[in-house]
Amino acid sequence: MLASGLMWMALAAAQPDELKEELKETIERLRSAPVELQVKGLLSLVEKGAVKDGLGEGGKLDERELIEECFHLAAQAGREMPLRLIGGAQVEDPDARLEEATAQRLDRLTLQAWAVRLMAARDKAKARELMVLLRLPIYRKLECADRTADVPNAYYVALGVILETGFSVKERADGMASGLVRSELAKITSTLQLEALLTELIRLQWTAEEYAAIVAPLGDTLGNLRVDDRTFTATERGLYGLVPKIEQFGLQGKTAGVAADPLAQGLRLFLAGQLSAPRCSDTAANAPAPPAGVRLRPTPPHPEFPDPSLPVVANYFNHKLRLAAWFPSTDLPPLEKEQMTPARLEGAIVGKKIYWSNEREITLKAQELYWGGRTDTPLSLEERSTPEWLRKAAEYRRMIGDYRRAEGQPAESWFLHKTGLMMALWNLMPESPERQEALAEVVRLLASVDKREVGIDLWVFGARGVMDRARRDRKDRSVAPEVLAALVQSGDPALWIVVKMQEWN
Known about the structure:
With about 500 residues, the protein is mainly alpha-helical.
C-alpha cells in the first residue's frame, strides 16, 4: 500500500528501491484510470514529493515534465469548472450534491490551475508559459431560474501565484506584473470573474506605480461590465459581495498615495446599469407581505442609510463610497431613485426535481428496519439478528435491487440514491454472509455503472459516500476495513484510486 505524507518521506530514505517499484506500479494504475482521476492522482504525488527523485534507470520521471503532461491531459476533463449553489438547499437536493461533487478538484480549470501552481514552485518561466495557455472560462449567462453559478476562482488563484512569484524585481519595476493584470481585466465578462481577481489583487503587495497602472483600467472594466441579475447577486458572501472588495482595493491604493476616483466612478456606472436593468423577482422585489395575523418584528433603520426604500448597496454607495471623506477625492453625484428601478421583474429560482422510486414503500421499510415501530430508540444489534428482521432485510434488499431509474431521472440522481440505499442496509445488517453480499452488490454497481454518463465527479462523490457510510458508528471514524478491501480488490482502477486518494489527502 502506498505510504502517504510524512510516512512516505520517512520510508523513502530507508527503502528507496522498494518504493520506486511501488511508485511505478501506482503510476501504471493511474494511467489506466479516467483522465480526471489520472491527473489528480499524478499531481497529488508531485505535491507530496513522491516523484521528486525520479524513478531511476530506464524509468526516469521528471517532476516538471509530469506537471506539464498533466496540464495538457486535464484539457480532456469532462467538466469545465466547479459550480456553486445559489439559494438554500433542501433534503436530497440534486444541486447541493452537484456543488459538493464539483468541489473535488476534478474539473478542467481546477486541474490545470493546480498544475500551474505546482510548476511555479519549480520553473517560473514554464509556469508563465502554462498560464498563457490556461484558458479562461467563457461567462455563462444565467437565467432567473438557475440555481448554480460557475466558480472561476481556480484560474485567478493560479494567476495570483504568477503575479506574486513569477516576475523578477526588474520585471515588476518595468510594469510586467501590472501589465498582466491589465490584460486579464480586458478578458473579464462576469462579476464572478472580477470578484475572484480582486481577491488576489487585495492579497498581493503593490507599489504606488503598480496601483496607478491598475486602478484606471479596473474602473473602466467595472463601469462597462453588465451581467444578468442572477450572476450579479450570486457573488461571494451573498448579495453584492463584489462591492466590499472594490472598496478594500481602492483604500489600499489610497494608502499608497493613488486616488480611488476611477473605482468610485466605475462602481457608480456599474450599479446604475445593473439596478435599472431587468431583475429577478426574488432579488429585486420587495419582500412579500406576511400572512394575515402574522406580525413581523420591525427592522431598525441603519444609522447611515436614511432611505429604507433603496437597495442596501445603493445606500452604501450614496452615504459612503461616493463621498470624498471616504473613497474618491471629490464627491460624486448620488444614485437617483430612477437609476435603481428595474426595467421589469422576471422569474425566480427553480429547484431541480427530486426523483424517487417507490419512495413511500422503500422509506417505510427502511424506517421499520431501523426503528422497529418505536420512536425513541433504534433496534439493537440483537434485535437486528432475529429471523424476522433478517427476512424483512432480505425483502428490503430485493426492493433496492429492483430500483430503476424513473422516467426523466438523471443518471447521477439514480446512482447516488441507489448506492445510499444499499449502504444504509449494509450498515444495519449484523455480520453474516448476507451482509458481505450486500457490500459486494454496492461494489459491483460502482464498478459497472457508466462513469461518463453519471459524470466522473458525481461518480467519485458516490464512491466516497460509500466510504463515508462505512465510517458510521466507528469510534475512530475510519472506513471499515472490509469496505476498503472490497473497493481495492474490485478490479476497477478508478475505485483503487479513490481509496488511495483518501490516504494521500
